[in-house]
Amino acid sequence: MPEALRVLERGDTLALAGVTMTPIPKLDYDRLLYWERTVRSVANFTRQDAEELLQAAAEIPIHTTVQTFPLEAANEALLALKRSEIDGTGVLMVDCKA
To answer: How many C-beta neighbours within 10 Å does residue 35 have?
Structure first.
């Protein structure tokens, strides 16, 4: 999480969508949250829920389809999503090594 916050621009939002996460470390407010950066949690179930889902997925079995887009193609990805042209999940690939 601190690595992701380091690369955010002013006003950007970091969405924590991990089904299971390690504890959030103490954050340096001045370096990581200043300039109206936002942290949002979108987790909606527990670690046990995730374990049960993965167990059921292995038994069924569930096969997933993932279509990736480079960050530079975000507009094209959004248009494909709007037009229902993405089969499965669309993922924007972000290089956080900056």
So the answer is: 11
Residue type present at position 9: E
- Using CA atoms in the order 81, 83, 87, 93, what is the torsion angle rounded to 10 degrees? -30
Q: What is d(CA 27, CA 93) in angstroms, rounded to the nearest whole number?
A: 25
Q: What is the value of pTM for the model shown? A: 0.41
CB 37 within 8 A of CB 13: yes
Question: What's the one-letter identity of residue 59?
Answer: E
| Strand-pair partners of 16 | 41
Share of the chain above pLDDT 90, in %: 24
Q: Is 59 helix (H, G, I), strand (E, B) or coil?
A: helix
pLDDT in tens, 15-55: 887 655 677 788 888 888 888 888 888 767 777 887 888 89
